[in-house]
Please model this.
Amino acid sequence: MKYAYYPGCSLLSTAAGYDYSFREVCKTLGIELCEVPGWICCGSTPAHSTSHLLALALPLKNLQLAQMTGAEQLVVPCAACFSRFKFALSECEKEPQLKKQMLEILEGPFPEGIKVVHPLEIFSQDDLLKKIKSAVKNHVPELKLVCYYGCLLTRPPKVTKFDNCENPVTMDKILSAIGLMPQPWSYKTDCCGASLTLTETEVSLKLIQKLIDQAKLAGAQAIALACTLCQTNLDTRQKDIEKASGNSYQMPILFFTQLLGLAFGIPPKKLGLNKHLTNPEQVIKKFT
Amino acid sequence: MDTANQVWVSSLAREIYERSGENVYLCFQCQKCSSGCPLNFAMDYTPAQILEAVRLDQESLVLGSKTAWLCASCETCTTRCPQELDLAKVMDTIKMVSLEKGTSALPKVSSFYKSFLQDLKFFGRIYELGLMMWLKLKTREFTKDMGLGMEMMKRRNLKLIPHFVRPREVQRIFNKVEELERSIK
Model:
């Protein structure tokens, strides 16, 4: 199966481990990725907070570029980018006037007929779940963890059409398939504060602390996730919340693709596991 | 919703509708948005109070409130509103109106947006180090998160050298958007 691949800016820097591990896992599963040639930033929150038109034009430009790969589906691992792509398509579908304006801004035809998907949607299909199970090479520990989906994969459901918006299960399904033990918890889709961490840090730290506290209460020894900004916030801010609360944390925060990679026997460095600020060693050494 | 016969008592409500297609008169104050909002504890007015203030045309209250700027666009309110109001879009629109009037209740957040878009316009993709520099120059918080930045650099989580991608095409998109936005107004 061939997919066009849009990594997005964070997968080249702060979330490089997501890019490495996603590519490695796809290689193992025989999924062909074709990177969108010369892709540009999707605009993220700063675009949609300041200009409706810019927020739609940037993802649509990328969709035009994605069509050049000849693939019918575009895979977007970053939850924030994924949401912007889905918004751009659904807004233009709703309002023909917007579509006209977009054609004026973008050169070339409107990117019709290319479907935007998230890796969780691909990997949770029955045939791929079977493939994932048979690709497991390492001993997978009975590790208790929680799956954290964040905001933008599931919401708003009319736009993203992803899983169940209050209780998504795709990641739980995938990680259970390799033998891990995702725990039920009610914070799957709560907000981590996103980019507020950079500007209103104190506010965001409260949200991050709540998430990690709740993961601990659910018995989790690690948090698995699928969003770049959630990973950065939860992984890099544990020292700050330790300072503020006096509690000790050290909760490993891993992309679900890194966990798959460990189960497939891919070396941790190739999965970018050396890039985390909260050491994931205690999880890595359990996969033998 | 058909707004042909709508009497727009509040000019702010009308402006928001014209820009976003969202009609705050639909709100019946059920408070679902405000009880589900993860940022409600830090806001000076709840999202439902902001909608009511828009309906009462309290422009200085709405534009002076931190609420829209604290909105993280988590889309919980939009998802749960029984009247299908896209509240996150209303919050975005309030931010746009504020910026056009040259105000921002949380200058650090608006500085981040501006720095990000400047970075994007220049490089085509986000160059985090450049973005941080721009943001620090604007907010004058030079030492904030320095330790964290060093840790990220050590692990090579931040690129030293930026990419330059499709500079002319990106510039063209920004210019065209500006042109269109001017012509709509």
Residues 19 and 176 of chain B are 18 Å apart (CA to CA). Chain B is about 60% helix and 0% strand. Chain B has two domains: 11-101, 107-184. Chain B touches chain A through 58 residues (CB under 8 Å).
